[in-house]
Amino acid sequence: MDYLKKTIFATIWDYKQAGLLDPAFDKDKLLLTNFFKSNSIQSSEKIIDHKNLEYQIDKKIENQRNHLSDNTNQNLMDNNLILEVENLADSSKDIPSLENNITNFKKFHSLKGSNKLLFGAGNSKSKTLFISEPPTYEEELQQKPYVEESNELFEKIIESMGLFPLNKNNCNIFVIPSTPFRLVKNLDDKISDLELMRPFLKKYIELISPKFLIFISKMPASILGLTDFLKFDSINGGFIGEYLGIPTVEIEGMKSMINDPEKKRNTWNNLKLIIQLINKENEH
């Protein structure tokens, strides 16, 4: 092996150790294979262009640096965006100011698919807070958390709990959507609307300060970053957990129960647990 080859070999080895060359990748494998092939033939029969080899190595390093730089810049942008929504949420002193801050935040990707934001409904001083699913097109238009068949089922659930639904003058529940807009898929690498919504949703709960929480579908827990939070205590076939120290249950989504009536059983098992706590609270 001549001096030039030794130098190139040492350089390739250094880059491999640094993780800039990976034999698992086809291009890097070809680069290394060509080099070692070139060492096994006579110098008069060289089949590798050393300058081209050095160029390929330099290009590889440049691409790695650009990729790292792009990732760093994207992470900084994401962190700044999270910090922005956290500051907006923290600065909200009541529900109107919170909803106003959400309205004025124009960086949700899903806004391009929504006509009008849907916010909380009912009695904001209620002890029982429902966090519903993202609105559908009709729910946005009618400015209601549920419409038609979904609304009928929702009202039956409320009444089965001994509570008064939204259409009653003595309504004693409050309902907020997990997102105030219809979700639009974000196919790029930017931060998701669910992550941006988390500080706002958490602030909603803090401002309302309910005694009991009911999550409808898995969406609220997903937005709040909760995993298995309902599975640490099982009673009578249901699961109950807590969020911010508040007793919390999760029930099936309205459409999900309409399409699969068997899921109503899961919902009822969880609701029974929160009903017991509500009844105990009312006795005091």
Give the tags.
single chain; 284 residues; alpha/beta; Uracil-DNA Glycosylase, subunit E; 2 domains; two-stranded antiparallel ribbon; 10 helices; elongated
In short:
This protein has helices at residues 3-17, 26-38, 50-90, 95-104, 137-142, 148-160, 193-208, 219-223, 254-259, 263-283, and strands spanning 121-122, 128-132, 173-177, 212-216, 234-235, 238-239, 241-243, 246-251. It has 284 residues and is an alpha/beta fold.
Which word captures the global form? elongated
Name of the top-level CATH class of the largest domain? Alpha Beta
Q: What proportion of the residues is helical, as a percent range?
A: 40-55%
- CATH homologous superfamily annotation of the largest domain: Uracil-DNA glycosylase-like domain
Terminal-residue CA separation: 90 Å
Structural domains: how many: 2
Query: Given the helix and strand composition, which structural class is it?
Result: alpha/beta
CATH architecture group name of the largest domain: 3-Layer(aba) Sandwich
Strand order within the widest beta sheet: 1-3-2-4-8-7
Q: What name is given to the CATH topology of the largest domain? A: Uracil-DNA Glycosylase, subunit E
Low-confidence stretches: 41-47
Largest sheet: 6 strands, mixed
* Mean pLDDT reading: 80
Number of helices: 10
Radius of gyration: 29 Å
Instruction: Determine the strand fraction and express it as a percent band.
Output: 5-15%
* H-E string: HHHHEEHHEHEHEEEEHH
Number of strands: 8
